[in-house]
Amino acid sequence: MGAVAIEALQMAFVLLAAPGLVGIVRAVKARFLRREGPPLIQPYRQLARLLGKEVVLAHNASWLFRTAPYLILALTWAAASVVPTFSTHIIFARLGDLIVITALLGSARFVLALAGLDIGTSFGGIGASREVMFASLAEPAMLMIVVTLAITAGSTQLSSIAAFMLSPVLGLRISFALALVALGIVALAENGRIPVDNPATHLELTMVHEAMVLEYSGRHLAMIELAAALKLLLMISIIICIFFPFGLGGTGATGFLLGLASYAAKLGIAAVLLGIFEVSLAKMRVFRVPELLGAGLMLGLLATLLLYVSRSL
Amino acid sequence: MILILLAGTAVLLALALAGAVVKGQGRSLYAIASFVAFLSAILALISLPARPETLVLPLGLPWLGWHFRLDPLSAFFLLVVDLGAASSSLFAIGYGRHEAEPGRVLPFFPLFLASLQLVVLAADAFSFLFSWELMSLASWALVLVQHRDHESIRAGYVYLVMALLSGLALLLSFGLLAGAAGSYEFAAMRLAHPAPGLAVLALLLALIGTGAKAGLVPLHAWLPLAHPAAPSQVSALMSGVMTKVAVYAFLRIAFGLLPVPPGWIGLLVLALGGITSVLGVLYALMQHDLKRLLAYHTVENIGIIFIGIGLAMVFRAAGGEEAAAALALTAALFHVLNHSLFKSLLFFGAGAVDRATGTRDMERGGGLIHRMPQTAFFFLIGCAAISALPPLNGFVSEWLTFQAILLGPGLPEWGPKIIIPVAGALLALAASLAAACFVKAFGITFLGRPRSREAAEAAETDRFSLSAMGILAVLCFLAGIFPAAVINAFAPVSRALLGAAMPAQSHLPWGTIIPVAAARSSYDGSAIFLLILAVTVLAIAGARHLAAHAVRRAPAWDCGFPDPRPVTQYTATSFAEPIRRVFGPVLFGAASIVRMPPPGATGPAQIKNVLHDRLWEMFYDPVAIAVARLAEAANHLQFLTIRRYLFFVFAALVMLLFSLALLQ
Hints:
The structure holds two protein chains of two kinds. By secondary structure, chain A is an all-alpha fold. Chain A contains eleven helices and one strand; from the N terminus they run ααβααααααααα. The longest helix of chain A has 32 residues, at 122-153. Chain A is globular. Chain B is mainly alpha-helical. Chain B has a domain at 617-663. In chain B, the strands form three sheets. Chain B has a two-stranded antiparallel sheet. Chain B is globular and about 95 Å long. At the A-B interface, strand 1, helix 3, helix 4, helix 5 and helix 9 of A face helix 15, helix 16, helix 17, strand 4 and helix 21 of B. Strand 1 of chain A pairs parallel with strand 5 of chain B, so a sheet runs across the interface.
């Protein structure tokens, strides 16, 4: 029963915390730009406002366009619910295979790109075609990182990888450093953060994610924004779970509370770091991004090759 | 059992004869073929775990007879063949109505089905090669159904040349296997122990022969020409089934007839598979003919299958890695089944679109999701399955292949240590490019606004075609959420080939599969499906309770500048432009030549995209040029005097006698 309750708590927590995470990133960015910035709860307000508004559908929107927001949210949420965030004792931990998580995010992207093409506007097309181009490099990079981790930890299960990382046999490894850098690049690309894409822009030629969702409004847009926030939280959680899993393995009430507190603290730190990172960098031109992602893919492959050569590297 | 199966094949052969005389569209003929193939599929499924059966018929060569054998490997591939045959015959009941010249399809279609069955049942080299060539010729006739189309004629020609190459390589391979005094029965070949060098040579020849049929790069060139040219039910069979029969032939020779080959051949197969998968999908992305895109994508999937086979060969050669080899082989077999399901489904959908709009050009499609909602839905399932999205079946086989790749570091040699991770990266690249490719295929064809009048007025296809697509979509779904049942069914095959199988998956809860050990990795298709379903319901219910329900229809927003003309949409070519810019310059010599009018001039700007088929230029053009030169040189021989010809005859005789004397 405990596992079920923890799972339910986690699923509720990630959904509710995700907009707050976005709020923190925005606030940090605003402070560094010496702006007042919106209050932390602004993303929640925005979601509430969108939920209250009517949906304006284009005349030729199909059923796919109308179901896509729910599917995107559901696929992202399903991926987030199998990641051990603050406890490994969740019932879906055995589903928490990194390849499955990558594929679930890939499915969400597949649906989103299709939704971008559904109305038949040029913006939807530009967004979808650039998104799949980014993904065609980011996804293999992610899978190479998974292979790197799986070879060392002997498992593709996130919970086993986290347990392995907590164990004292680890030591410093070059391959993990490479994988961490690669994972950072992938996470930036997956979430459309600077330097890959700018989540705050509505300047036509630079949008990718925003171009795909341009035709959405009302509750549909709320679902998509929530899914985007959730995806940011999910990628950060994966990085935390793999590379900074301390506090995760605890059992009992104290261990559980400790896990929750440390997870929340780690999320906060990650959000602040992301904000600082974003203000200190400019967005890349679209066709510079493949070079960055290609570097991520090569780092992942290099890490894997190192491990094939010697398991202790 | 084998007699009943052969009776089914005989019925198909009789149908081929009937097809030659029957008038009309032959709907009953397709119906019978579908029924026979369906029964045969059930029998094949039943006989998967059964003991091998053999049968000799007094046909073929007088001193050899016609040997048949039904063992787990042939039963598995018979199942794949018959599933494809049954569904494509069902599809053809409706689709065949539009055929302009049914007399060009009806005799050859059942013949093609029968020959596919005969290949997997054959148990001696003669009957195998006879069935193999019958399969090539029947499908060649079907490629040339549109015999006045210039493209079809070229496709048929290239196909015939490649089929000849394939047949020749296999003939030589079997010749080496049989040895100087050996027998052409497979049973005898299995017992003969050829010298290691000869065995390697035979295997390489078999790789060429079967690779040319399956579409391994660089022997794939005929495939994207020939598969789209045939009627869609035949395209589905050629792409979904005939390439798998080639995979069968390779497995039969590499695992069934030869002793364990050295590891480097496995690495060669693995590397070829990796290259094939990435090049296949990149070529597919560059296409805007829907059926040609699908055909190129078959090349990619063949690559994935050969990655699995190559891994199995590497692990097998290493010794002591039977479990890993079984995992890799099971992954390959799973992908064989999956690909035959979703590729047939996608070709049916492409055929339905072709019939509804009169064109296979995606640039003239668009908006078909409104006009053909059911076709669109089934096609979408196929796209999701082939893009390896969970919880559908394509994901399971790619996941299994990755699990096999993860067992690579256990090998001691250096070759695998370098090639296996690179193959893994290529597989990952191919998988994610496949998703891009099918976003394009579905998005441009079915979504957006109609780009032509035909697309705007298209009508939903008939119910037979729809039911064929529906059945395959359901099978894709079931294989995805109950992978354990599928893997258990394959266990006899890998046990027969490797002496080991993946651990039985039957005692596990729900649809869980565990390739090696529970602590290592597990995948649960049905749980993932239920989880997605549950959270989707939660999201919809949440929105229903919390959100406003009002919906208003309005013109598209498009940042305030909506343009009602459909040409402003992204096309298939423009959708692939970013990927073409990233991968194209190196692989295809892709370039865009932009010609802007001088400032102040009112003329239109021009943009021209250039793509080179480097593989064709590298491998095929030189051969074609050499053959043409040789023919040119030999042409002189046509205009000689009778004395010269007599001299040639005499010289040939002397040469023969001389060489005979040398050999004695």
